[in-house]
Write a structure and sequence with these properties.
212 residues, alpha/beta, 3-stranded parallel β-sheet, two-stranded antiparallel ribbon, 8 helices
Length: 212
């Protein structure tokens, strides 16, 4: 799937969402980015803008100074519900395009009314051949979503728990990244930093980026 030139790879980062509207906005932008990467034809792009209303495309320069198309939310238009957006994955799949949906930091929907039920209904109605990967970094909230007998996602999918990355392996990785800036970190300091960040890769990476 990842090596397919026509694969529709939709990655949604749900970190910090506080409402159904914010979920819909994140999914609308992710869908637009995946659509643009997969179907780089002007007529097809215009079709996407009709499918996902409320999206505002803009051109900006990337790190190399080349023009890049990015997507945001049009303040003058209301984004449609994420339930309706996810339905579009069915149409893409039936156009002989491989589809992968990744929902990251999924645990942040736990405190939003109706979010779990709406997501469960949407995902279970997708074609069973569309792979869905759900990721999260807060185990207690993930358990609340997937382990409670009364929860919509109870016993849904196959659960895989990733153990903490070995201190020495992460230390080596950190030094590989620091080396480009002429910096170096000792194993002792690396272990201290990893523990302070509760050994959460995202938190460690953000702190190291700030140091750089």
């Amino acid at each position: 799937l990842l090596n397919s030139p026509s694969a529709f790879l939709m990655y949604v980062d749900l970190m910090g969402v506080k409402s159904l509207t914010q979920i819909s906005e994140r999914i609308a932008i992710a869908f637009s980015e995946a659509y643009n990467d997969t179907f780089q034809v002007k007529a097809t792009f215009q079709n996407m803008l009709q499918l996902i209303k409320g999206i505002k495309p803009t051109f900006e320069l990337d790190d190399k100074g080349s023009p890049k198309l990015s997507f945001g939310i049009n303040p003058d238009s209301k984004v449609q519900s994420f339930v309706n957006i996810l339905i579009q994955l069915e149409n893409i799949y039936h156009s002989n395009t491989s589809v992968l949906l990744v929902l990251d930091e999924f645990q942040d929907i736990a405190e939003i009314d109706e979010a779990e039920a709406l997501f469960r209904n949407s995902l279970q109605n997708l074609n069973s051949n569309i792979p869905i990967i759900i990721l999260g970094s807060k185990q207690h909230l993930l358990s609340k979503i997937f382990a409670r007998p009364s929860a919509p996602f109870f016993n849904w999918g196959t659960h895989i728990n990733f153990e903490d990355i070995d201190y020495n392996i992460y230390h080596s990785y950190m030094n590989d990244r620091f080396e480009h800036a002429g910096l170096k970190i000792s194993l002792e300091t690396s272990i201290y930093l990893q523990n302070k960040m509760s050994r959460i890769p995202e938190a460690i990476n953000r702190l190291c980026f700030a140091i750089l």
